[in-house]
Amino acid sequence: MNLLPSQQQHWTTPPTSHPCSRSKLPALLLVVVLLLPTTSSLRTGPRTPPSVPGSASAAAGNICRGLSPSTSAASPCMLLSWCFSSVARATDNISEDNLLGRGRIGRVYKGSLDNRLLVAVKVLNLEVKGASRSFDAECRTLGQVRHRNLVKIISTCSNLEFKALVLEFMPNLSLNKWLYSQNQCLTLLQRINIMLDVSLGLDYLHHQHPHVIVHCDLKPSNILLDENMVAHISDFGIAKLMLIDNKSTTSTNNIGTVSYMAPEYGLTRGVTIRGDVYSFGILLLELVTGKKPVDTMFNGELNLRQWVNNAYPNAVMEIVDNNILRTDFTNLQQHSDGVDILRRCLSSIIDVGLHCTKDLPNEKLLMRDVVTMLQEIKNRVLVN
């Protein structure tokens, strides 16, 4: 401590007018000695107590690792951290009754905080290779982004035996459930709004954030819908952060779902924003047709894009999702040119999807252009 030399000098030369000063010296030295460990602990931070591997109670005793504040693009931002007991309390001891979904590296549970705020708790399976790396990537990305169409991270919990992300809860769950549910149906306007929401989120990641971020795993199950059916992009576990520009040196060894993956990823080692554009284009075509890119009808040389391209522009009504026809065609019949309005709208949307999925990377649209095009399509639908 910087104060020790001056204090010692004062103690060793006490004024003669205070005879009791000499008697206070041992007590003062004792106070200084006792304070030294305290100041050291303040400087180095608290230590995490040891734990017993595989024990829930041991995990509860661990101190959750908070993320250090940093302005570096490669470092996570400051996030509020929870301990295991808080996660267990919120999810009723991670009960299967609260299970919302499962993925390759973990499960998502519905949780409730003391203030009755609902959350989604993503618990990672640390036995799966890459789970810890995925946790760090998602913390790093979600800790830095703020956008209406990106899922928000509330807290994290991390120790040697347990890692979880606490995210905002989306009551309408994933787009995948809406597209392929027998009980739920999306109107054309809802689909356009969802596509516009996703494009706005990607535009922020690609063009508005200080550092270009590539999501790398865009698909219906990673698009979550809130109570107002506003779409939020989720699952940033393999997102890539570009530190210089949109030309990444990051390898493509860990890139999302094959059926949504840009063809160039099989030929090159680099990740670019055009890969997200391709995934978005496939997602858009899926929204219009109601066909998964892995549908059994697609085999050999025929894939979703080729099937749609073969029908464009003259036969788009033959490939459109029947749910769109059921929900929107009745309303459009009130207009003398209602069918033509629907056909033109669908053709415009499909045109965007086909341009997003061009073979050559440089031929693909940028998300800022996609936003403009979809906004124009939405405006025309609202007018009609």
TrEMBL record:
Membrane topology: Single-pass membrane protein
PROSITE patterns: PROTEIN_KINASE_DOM, PROTEIN_KINASE_ST
Keyword Nucleotidyltransferase: no
Cross-referenced InterPro entries: Kinase-like_dom_sf, LRR_receptor-like_kinase, Prot_kinase_dom, Ser-Thr/Tyr_kinase_cat_dom, Ser/Thr_kinase_AS
Superkingdom field: Eukaryota
Gene3D superfamilies the UniProt entry points to: Phosphorylase Kinase, domain 1, Transferase(Phosphotransferase) domain 1
Pfam families hit by this protein: PK_Tyr_Ser-Thr
Polar residues biased stretches: 1-20
Keywords attached to this entry: ATP-binding, Cell membrane, Glycoprotein, Kinase, Leucine-rich repeat, Membrane, Nucleotide-binding, Phosphoprotein, Receptor, Repeat, Serine/threonine-protein kinase, Signal, Transferase, Transmembrane, Transmembrane helix
Location relative to the cell: Cell membrane
Any one GO molecular function term: ATP binding
GO cellular component term of the entry, any: plasma membrane
Occurrences of domain Protein kinase (ranges): 94-382
Protein name: non-specific serine/threonine protein kinase
Organism: Iris pallida (Sweet iris)
Top-level taxonomy: Eukaryota, Viridiplantae, Streptophyta, Embryophyta, Tracheophyta
